[in-house]
């Protein structure tokens, strides 16, 4: 029996990066999956390799649109009978650059994805979890939620807002068997880091790509956070830079 056998997991932004790695890890742990992203072709490329071992559904979904998110949640409930875990993973870094020169439409789109997208997922799934007596919502956070970084005003602000949503959900739903947790994965070797490096703005852009963690590390953390072993962290942000957390998950210590 896998750690997540019999559980149903929804993952947003599941077509690449942390989302795709989480799909692999959770399928290996025995979960049934609903994978969401904007590209159906990219979703199917991820799902094709998983269907031999796990039930996997895919659906195109713009998480900035509540109606689309609600439809995805309903389809998941209809297909699997329940929803045990929501992973709010989808996110964007753009716009990168000085706030005074930012494009208002691009900034608004970032907020729609990073903050309102998290709200949409929570809002759609909470009634289902409340009715079934419990569930877990894990949102990908960031150190940028707590530390301002030059050129990242949208990202820092939206990640801070998303973490406050996690804390609010914990306050409101903890008595209903629902856990809300934030995972701060550190810098991860994804397409987002390539965009950051190309920008040349702030110290993160100067890091060599090889210095970033593989997406498989936060994926393993997400599996663990979906289990009762992580219940003590409800309402908190779990950081993969914390040696004690890494030991709990079974990750190697960070170098240095």
Q: Would you write up a description of this structure?
A:
The protein has helices at 17-28, 40-48, 66-80, 104-132, 153-173, 191-199, 216-225, 243-249, and strands at residues 8-12, 32-37, 56-60, 85-88, 135-140, 178-184, 237-239. The protein is of the alpha/beta class and 256 residues long. The model has no long low-confidence stretch (mean pLDDT 95).
Instruction: Give the N-terminus to C-terminus distance in angstroms.
Output: 36 Å
CATH fourth-tier homologous superfamily: NAD(P)-binding Rossmann-like Domain
Kindly report the spatial arrangement of strands forming the biggest sheet.
3-2-1-4-5-6-7
Give the radius of gyration: 17 Å
Q: How would you describe the shape?
A: globular
Count of the domains:
1
The number of helical elements comes to 8
The whole-number mean of residue pLDDT values reads 95
List the helices and strands in order: EHEHEHEHEHEHHEH
Structural class: alpha/beta
**Helical content (DSSP H or I, runs of 4+):** 40-55%
Work out the oligomeric state of the chains in this entry: single chain
Low-confidence stretches: none
Q: Note the main sheet.
A: 7 strands, parallel
Query: What's the CATH architecture?
Result: 3-Layer(aba) Sandwich
How much strand? 5-15%
The CATH class is identified as: Alpha Beta
Total strands: 7
CATH topology: Rossmann fold
